[in-house]
Inverse folding.
């Protein structure tokens, strides 16, 4: 079964609105979660590293004020796309590092479409 | 910086064997992953190599040579459902929860 749950799977919103995506680790506590974005026919691009109880670390070129990350507990991280625009339409995927082997477990992904 | 190279596309015949290569140049090394990703879905874990050599898991095998910065994923007895993108990913640093960098992926098409 899934060890990382992501919600919602699909979301369509109007330009200018905000969208929140949740990522939950189900079987273990994850002090660190990673948020990726994937455009069609491209690979996963790391957006930010979410750290429980502290500020997220953003990759170069990712606007921290636009992509708000909150990691309030050891099992939940949220990504909020603020004032979404059509160019933000993408597949957003979270992942957590497993406690033993270091394997990355991925959520199911959230497909965002901004109209 | 990190640089990971893999072929963009490959085509193979059902029942055959295919090898997908990955070369990397990273600042330090602490493991290489292979993931399978079907269109519109999240990646699923295939293998993890941290030491040199071949890791076999059913129809899938992964090889690593750290001195050459090289890995390959070997798929045997190809099935139509193996048509997917295969992502090579490297964790560059040792210790702690270090971010993983993904290659651009190899889109494999299995034909009858």
């Amino acid at each position: 079964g899934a060890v990382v749950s992501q919600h919602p799977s699909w979301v369509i919103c109007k330009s200018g609105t905000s969208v929140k995506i949740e990522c939950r680790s189900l079987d273990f506590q994850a002090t660190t979660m990673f948020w990726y974005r994937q455009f069609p026919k491209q690979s996963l691009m790391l957006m930010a590293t979410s750290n429980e109880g502290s500020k997220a670390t953003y990759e170069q070129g990712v606007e921290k004020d636009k992509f708000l990350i909150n990691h309030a507990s050891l099992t939940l991280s949220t990504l909020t796309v603020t004032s979404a625009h059509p160019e933000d339409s993408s597949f957003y995927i979270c992942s957590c590092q497993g406690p033993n082997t270091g394997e990355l477990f991925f959520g199911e992904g959230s497909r965002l479409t901004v109209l | 910086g990190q640089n990971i190279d893999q072929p963009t596309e490959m085509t193979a015949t059902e029942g055959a064997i295919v090898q997908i290569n990955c070369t990397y140049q990273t600042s330090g090394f602490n493991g290489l992953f292979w993931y399978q990703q079907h269109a519109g879905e999240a990646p699923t874990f295939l293998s993890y190599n941290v030491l040199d050599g071949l890791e076999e898991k059913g129809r899938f095998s992964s090889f690593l040579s750290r001195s050459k910065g090289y890995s390959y994923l070997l798929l045997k007895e190809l099935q139509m459902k193996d048509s997917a993108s295969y992502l090579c990913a490297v964790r560059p640093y040792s210790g702690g929860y270090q971010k993983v960098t993904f290659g651009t992926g190899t889109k494999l098409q299995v034909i009858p």
Q: What stands out?
A: Chain A has no helices and eleven strands. The CA atoms of residues 95 and 106 of chain A lie 4 Å apart. Chain A touches chain B through 24 residues (CB under 8 Å).
